[in-house]
Amino acid sequence: MASIERMTITLPTEMAGIVKDAVEGGDYASSSEVIREALRDWKLKRELRIQKIAELKAEIDRGLEDVAKGRVKKFNAQRIIQRGRKLLAERPSV
After folding, report:
1. How far is CA 46 from the centre of its chain?
2. Which of 15, 44, 45, 90 is geometrically suited to a Cys-Cys bond with 11, CB 3.0 to 4.6 A?
3. 56 within some domain
4. Residue ranges making up the domain that contains 58
5. Separation CA 65–CA 92 (nearest Å)
6. pLDDT tens across 34-60, in order?
7. Separation CA 37–CA 43 (nearest Å)
8. Residue 1 — very low, low, confident or very high, per pLDDT cuts 50/70/90?
């Protein structure tokens, strides 16, 4: 097991109540378990965000390379709007 470091944290009343309710409801054995799970979820979301940013930067680099090599089309706002609407219509509902 990894070493444990004791920390003291301060939470807004509402958040503290959520943590206490989770423990009192039997979902967790302790407040520490609630916080550890929340941090694991945060870490995963943060890693996904970092990955998405890297993907977006790569797309920007590809676009800049296209511009540098002259692989561009004349700007047409109506075509962009139509494509955006088509992509939006094809998106699965969440």
Report:
1. 6
2. 15
3. yes
4. 13-90
5. 31
6. 999 999 999 999 999 999 999 999 999
7. 10
8. low
